[in-house]
Give the backbone structure.
Amino acid sequence: MAALRFDVVTLFPDFFASPLSTGLLGRALTNEIAAVHLTNPRDFATDKHHRVDDEPYGGGVGMLMKPEPIFAAVESLPRSPRRLVVLMSPQGQPMTQPIFQTLATSWDQIVIICGHYEGVDERVRYLVDQELSLGDFVLTCGEIPALALINGVVRLRPGTVGKPDSLKYESFEIDLLDYPQYTRPAEFRGWSVPDVLRSGNHAAIAAWRRQQQLERTRQRRPDLYDRWQQQGS
């Protein structure tokens, strides 16, 4: 499988240096499971001060990113046949595991535009296929959700996670949270590992884990539990 190409249009390329070079994500990039290319729209500003922002028409607080440098930055990129352009925006659809699964399998190239200041000029949306958000809150920049997107998508690509079967049982894969997990020691400060997990009875362990998933999801995320029930369990 060819490497999935990410092109990140960002005013702060240095923001990505450490996260992209460490852990599973760093190894995945080293192993060419994916590739991340950073493009700074400031390099495409044509005025002598290299301005990428300006005051909004009609007044208002803060500055908006200008359209010309963003368009020029995106248009400078190579274009794969299966390319998706994403804008990170608080107005976008919240990212979910199914969205990551689609992004990991349906595209050869994902272009990510990181907003900043008070956002981007509305005309930038003519470049965009999809708007995504980290959640219903506002951050100082789009680089944080962009990094979350890259991480969540790359870990689903074959070869990133050492044991692919582990991906099948994670939280949100089937609209249920993960079950509790324990490791040694068997007892710690009065808290003991449940006997069933030390029983060697795999059927009993599977049943216990399933029940724990149901109870944990019902208590902590009733919205997910209701959706799981509506989908026929």
The mean pLDDT is 93.
